[in-house]
Amino acid sequence: MARIPSLKSLNAFPHAEEHLLKKTYSGAIVTILGLIIMFTLFVHELQFYLTTYTVHQMSVDLKRGETLPIHINMSFPSLPCEVLSVDAIDMSGKHEVDLHTNIWKLRLDRYGHIIGTEYLSDLVEKGHGAHHDHDHGHEHHDEQKKHEPTFNEDAEKMVKSVKQALENGEGCRVYGMLDVQRVAGNFHISVHGLNIFVAEKIFEGSSHVNVSHVIHDLSFGPKYPGIHNPLDETTRILHDTSGTFKYYIKVVPTEYRYLSKKVLPTNQFSVTEYFLPIRPTDRAWPGNCFISPFMLR
Ligand SMILES: *[C@@H]1O[C@H](CO)[C@@H](O)[C@H](O)[C@H]1NC(C)=O
Ligand SMILES: *[C@@H]1O[C@H](CO)[C@@H](O)[C@H](O)[C@H]1NC(C)=O
């Protein structure tokens, strides 16, 4: 084959000279180090790519007419269930009696064990009366009878059973869910459902109402990973006074979007708490708890 000298210059992969192809120890070390660095960088990049980030985004809430679910689970270690009532009022003055509610009251003994349940189908109308579904056959006061200032047998029986419960150190856990309108309003867990005369007879003065409570859970919708409900595991024990605990709550509607594009509508909230001690001159009875969910709209 005839050699064309100019063709040789087109060789893109010229053979290196012999001394450049020698394998050396230092060369091997550099190669290994290089591989290690490449591998580390690759792993880091991959990790970075695979991490899930939570992205926060704020927007105006355009939802209308939806209800706000309130999940409660709280215990009153020193108040029997018979004296506790739950009620809710919104700004329009509407009493949440016809809304879907699912509240249970569990009787607790002095060691915190459950000894009975009672289902509240309706919320108490303020200043009116209680309508309870109960399965324990306790003597409950009737709506009309509660308005009567005079004592009758039912009231006497109730006072007796409550006093017995107080002596036994009975407490009550209130838990369940209640749906309210998304407007400013409040709900109370208190002894306000009691007739004032009955209350006077039971506690012998409003300063003896022990409103100590533990909030196990208070939330406004389903939980998502990383949600912080500021009132969970809040313990308020009073030793020598009584009064009203007020929790002012601001609810912020929240949507949690999963990577799968599934949306979980829920709510976050912030809380301001204060305690209003009862004064001897007060005629008012301590409300145990006054929680007002406010919507930011
Ligand atoms: C309420 O809280 C108590 C104490 O943390 C817990 O044992 C109980 O299971 C809770 N009840 C509900 C219905 O979540
Ligand atoms: C109120 O109840 C709590 C919890 O049971 C108890 O620790 C506290 O001593 C009680 N306070 C009074 C004044 O009896």
From TrEMBL:
<comment type="similarity">
    <text>Belongs to the ERGIC family.</text>
</comment>
<feature type="domain" description="Endoplasmic reticulum vesicle transporter N-terminal">
    <location>
        <begin position="7"/>
        <end position="96"/>
    </location>
</feature>
<dbReference type="GO" id="GO:0016020">
    <property type="term" value="C:membrane"/>
</dbReference>
<feature type="transmembrane region" description="Helical">
    <location>
        <begin position="24"/>
        <end position="43"/>
    </location>
</feature>
<feature type="region of interest" description="Disordered">
    <location>
        <begin position="127"/>
        <end position="150"/>
    </location>
</feature>
<dbReference type="InterPro" id="IPR045888">
    <property type="entry name" value="Erv"/>
</dbReference>
<keyword id="KW-0472">Membrane</keyword>
<dbReference type="GO" id="GO:0005783">
    <property type="term" value="C:endoplasmic reticulum"/>
</dbReference>
<dbReference type="InterPro" id="IPR039542">
    <property type="entry name" value="Erv_N"/>
</dbReference>
<keyword id="KW-1133">Transmembrane helix</keyword>
<protein>
    <recommendedName>
        <fullName>Endoplasmic reticulum vesicle transporter N-terminal domain-containing protein</fullName>
    </recommendedName>
</protein>
<dbReference type="Pfam" id="PF07970">
    <property type="entry name" value="COPIIcoated_ERV"/>
</dbReference>
<dbReference type="Pfam" id="PF13850">
    <property type="entry name" value="ERGIC_N"/>
</dbReference>
<feature type="domain" description="Endoplasmic reticulum vesicle transporter C-terminal">
    <location>
        <begin position="155"/>
        <end position="287"/>
    </location>
</feature>
<keyword id="KW-0812">Transmembrane</keyword>
<dbReference type="InterPro" id="IPR012936">
    <property type="entry name" value="Erv_C"/>
</dbReference>
<dbReference type="GO" id="GO:0030134">
    <property type="term" value="C:COPII-coated ER to Golgi transport vesicle"/>
</dbReference>
